[in-house]
Amino acid sequence: MIPVICIDGPSGVGKGTLSRHLAQKLGWHLLDSGAIYRALGLAALEQGILPDPNPDVAALEELARALPLQFREEGGQTRVFLQDRDISVALRSPLAGQLASQVAALSPVRNALLERQRHFRQAPGLVADGRDMGTVVFPDAPLKVFLTASVEERAQRRLKQLQEQGDSASLRAVEAEIAERDRRDRERSVAPLLPAADARILDSSGQSVAETFRVLEGWVHDTFGELIF
Ligand code: C5P
Q1: Centroid of ligand 1 to alpha carbon of 145 (angstroms)
Q2: What is the DSSP string of 70-95?
Q3: Domains located in the chain, CATH noted
Q4: Which of 119, 140, 147, 210 is most buried (most C-beta within 10 Å)?
């Protein structure tokens, strides 16, 4: 069985950075499942299915199955293409995040994306980043990590990211956006944001990326043995 490490948790907690480091260090594949939901949200916007308080679920489901999405590794970075269009920058926008959390609340859409996500499980192994990697997509994963940090700290980190991209958001707006997305992700009836029963909780509040990564590496050693690195 090809090994999987699941890294789940709320928005802006640093899952992306940790998952990428870990996948690079292990030489494993990486699944950024949030990028799939974001791309679907953007595609639905372009097709006029969103915004809509009562979206056409069948149309979204069909779009989810047929989405011409590709992840390409370029110079140590993953670029995301929709058909032949590079959507990597648009994908990180707050709008894409909001659209993603809307489509992600729909059970037929989540089901339509299951196989696409499971396809990433290729030798020698997979690091899977998301919300339901350990609970739904890879329930047999030998190591499941649930990463947490306070809303304030996550908002600070997200603000820094946005500023680096030349975006001028306010801390309050970012905090409100994260809190709203958390609420929606936790309260949805399908695949709510919750740690798997066998997940290990890693609170990164007040810790540097390097410190958090050291804890994670320790758990990887515990689970797979020293030889893996
Ligand atoms: O992780 P990221 O911020 O890119 O995810 C965007 C949104 O996609 C989340 O707020 C969540 O609603 C949804 N999502 C999900 N399940 C996943 C990954 C993301 O519901 N596995």
Answers
A1: 16
A2: EEEEETTEEEEEETTEE-HHHHTSHH
A3: 4-220 (3.40.50.300)
A4: 147
